[in-house]
Design a protein that fits this description.
five-stranded antiparallel sheet; single chain; Peptide Deformylase; alpha+beta
């Protein structure tokens, strides 16, 4: 189901609770909502649709990747960039890393570890920040 986008900083600044295998409906809602905003958005966190769970979705090339309980375990090559967010107006400066390694669970709640670079890494870092209550 397509959900409205949260813009309230009090909601966005909350640290997300761990996701469980029972959070499949939130995964689908993220898929539906991201698709509805595909012209202006490449990733989302569950708190952006009003669900305080540690779940993100990101467009990684032609794939849509859902991550439950993502944690960055390695990061390399810091850089400064500008980012926008569907929950905010305009762009803001932020620090990111060119390469990251992430531990997470997939939609079947299986443990995964994957390394990402470039724009894919940037999207994932932005969405994990949302899970940590950090808004650019």
């Amino acid at each position: 189901m397509i959900k409205p986008i949260v813009t309230n900083p009090l909601q966005l600044n909350q640290v997300a609770q761990p996701a469980t295998a029972l959070d499949q409906s939130t995964c689908q809602d993220l898929r539906d909502t991201l698709k509805a905003h595909q012209a202006e958005c490449v990733g989302m966190a569950a708190n952006m649709i009003g669900v305080n769970k540690r779940i993100i979705i990101a467009e990684i090339g032609p794939l849509t990747l859902v991550m439950l309980n993502p944690v960055i375990t390695k990061q390399a090559k810091p850089y400064r960039t500008q980012e926008g967010c569907l929950s905010l107006i305009g762009e803001r400066p932020t620090n990111r890393f060119e390469t990251i390694t992430v531990n997470y669970r997939n939609e079947q709640f299986q443990t995964q570890t994957q390394t990402f670079t470039g724009f894919s890494a940037q999207i994932i870092q932005h969405e994990i920040d949302h899970c940590d209550g950090i808004v650019i």
